[in-house]
Amino acid sequence: MTTIRKAVFPVGGLGTRFLPATKAIPKEMLPVVDKPLIQYAVEEAYAAGIREMIFVTGRNKRAIEDHFDTAFELEAELQAAHKSALLQLVHAIKPDDMDCVYVRQPRALGLGHAVLCAERLVGDEPFAVLLADDLMMGHDQAAGGPTVLQQMVQAYASSPGMLLAVQDVPRCETRRYGVVDVHGAQQPLAEVFGLVEKPAPGQEPSTLAVAGRYILTPTVFDSIRRQPRGAGGEIQLTDGVAALIGHERVQAFRYAGTRYDCGSKEGFLQATVELALADPTLREALRAQLGRVLAAQAALPA
Questions:
Q1: What gap in Å lies between CA 183 and CA 161, rounded to an integer?
Q2: Angle ∠(159,221,58) on CA atoms, nearest 5
Q3: Distances from the Cα of 244 to the Cαs of 26, 94, 287, in angstroms?
Q4: Residues in the chain with pLDDT < 70?
Q5: What's the pLDDT score for residue 197?
Q6: Are 177 and 209 in contact, with CB atoms under 8 Å apart?
Q7: Is-contact 99 52, C-beta < 8 A?
Q8: Model confidence, pTM
Q9: Secondary structure, 3-state, the chain
Q10: pLDDT of residue 101
């Protein structure tokens, strides 16, 4: 049985929606509670059995490499201070059996182009793509249940082919996503008959939007290479996948879990609050603080 051994993380974007914070800090390094976004995504891939993490970086992204590198001075100080719990926390960022490799995306030409930059590192095998902007939490993940990518890897094992994580969105929001046509199928895993990136209002084939998790086969590279620039003047991954429909099996996977759109300020704040409320060490203090803030807001004149 073919397993998924490699994951690609396109992290070369500029993060303009979070300026000025992202002027010098990669958006993927913005912390949600106490971990940067990229670490949540890497941990999700690791939990799915993946051990080779491929980062498609850009300029000013060295902080990501440093985060997954060894910090000798920090570790020496923690060891000297007998702070074993913190030392273990630092070591857990990159387990010994995990490899991190990096390739530079010379220009930000779109998600499809970013994935294409990883072609030589991926080679001739299926692979996962994770967008760190989309912080994904499996339905029972906190209690030991599968992550979203674990669910997808399990689905791939029983039904090989390209897999696109999808979720229902309000029809008025479909213009922000790649949207699939599954001919009305309602099961968790359904064949994709069409895929449109950022459809114009009224042109969406459904309300099933592609979320930031994919399992792809290497045939996608040639398909991306043949695509002209699509929505937003960029080389779109969805265009490369769409061109393969009818020639290769492409499936939509309705995952069990929650997606936080941390590429937006609203989604980032939602993730921060909800994940902090799920943390037993923070829950009560945060509830009390939120109660005080909401009470003070309610007392203000209308």
A1: 18
A2: 115
A3: 33, 35, 49
A4: 1-2, 230-232, 302
A5: 85
A6: yes
A7: yes
A8: 0.92
A9: CCCCCEEEEECCCCCHHHCCHHHCCCHHHCEECCEEHHHHHHHHHHHCCCCEEEEEECCCCHHHHHHCCCCHHHHHHHHHCCCHHHHHHHHCCCCCCCEEEEEECCCCCCHHHHHHCCHHHHCCCCEEEECCCEEEEECCHHHCCCCHHHHHHHHHHHCCCEEEEEEECCHHHHHHCEEEECCCCCCCEEECCEEEECCCCCCCCCCEEEEEEEEECCHHHHHHHHCCCCHHHCCCHHHHHHCCECCECEEEEECCEEEEECCCHHHHHHHHHHHHHCCCCCHHHHHHHHHHHHHHHHCCCC
A10: 96
Task: Please compute, for residue 90, the number of CA atoms within 13 A of its CA located in the half-sphere on the CB side.
Answer: 17
- Residue found by looking up tokens 């059995």 in the block: 49
Say if CB 210 and CB 177 are below 8 A apart: yes
CA distance 30 to 11: 12
Residue type, 115: V
The confidence score (pLDDT) of residue 2 equals 61
Per-residue buried b or exposed e for 205-215, using 16+ beta carbons within 10 Å of the residue's own CB: bbbbbbbbbbb
Contacts 24+ apart (CB under 8 A), 17-26: 17/263, 17/264, 17/265, 18/265, 18/268, 24/60, 25/63, 26/60, 26/61, 26/63, 26/64
Q: How far apart are CA 197 and CA 216, in angstroms?
A: 17
The predicted pLDDT at position 1 comes to 46
Token pair recorded at residue 284: 């009560």
